[in-house]
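Input chain follows. Return structure tokens only.
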Amino acid sequence: MVLSILLIIPASASVLPPSPDEIQNLRIVTSVDGVGGMSQDSKLSWSLSSEVLNANLFAVTNPDDEWDFIWVLGEEPPLNKDGEVQSHVTYSEKTNANMGVISYRKTSEVDTEPLLGAQYNVWNERQITFTGIDSGSLLSSEDLTMYNVGTCFPAALSVCPFTCCDDCGFIPASCSMIETGSNLDVSRVAAYIAGGVRNVNRVGDSDVFPPIPSVDGPALAKYRVQVTEMNPGKPSLGTVSTYLKITEKDSDFDCRNPQAIAPGKDLMQNLEISEFRNMKGSINLFDYQMNYQSRISPSAGCNV
């Protein structure tokens, strides 16, 4: 059986938070060759805000000095109505090989700084070959999620001033989620699986609070599952499946409308995509490729 799919999804309009003051870079390489059993369990959870997480900061007049102000903590949710964006990324992988000949290669990378072009802040890449002995089998599952949400704020484009003016409009409140992943249940397989997300931008204007994010860089997600023959004329055996879920909600552009703070109250766009692919039996080729991009159109925030 042969299945080859290429899916490219353009959408709008995620705005990504800036990187934290402290930058982390992590790279893990795993290599396994052997006969018998192997287990691998990986989890990642990463939340990032242009303001603070799990609270809202507000400046109020100091009761002891009318020329001074103090910071007061407010509850979250909702997000700071004066303009806040957040990004939440999760990743998990669980692989168990039992009674077989296994070759397993995995590279995992996490980079918390803003990256240029089609680079990914979170990236995982695996190459697996397995041949079961007697009733030996390999089970592997992988899940990747990116959730971006933001309240309405003045436009912050490279071609615009960072503060609102007569020639600048507003970026609407929005929320978007992409979920993807795969499952293998096989007695023998040759598989390549890779995927990642871009979820960090540079800051646009740090002189105000909350800082205004830049919208020059899009949110990106990429995922590929490829199962091929072990050798010419010797297909992989078992079951392979993939899934994809996308939700995009965008509210009204007018930030002066209080309803625009919550995208669900006055939607401009509601995009939902759901897919599931499954193949069982002798697999000569299963190739699933997904590329996702969500960004603000340059014409959305400015009149130039």
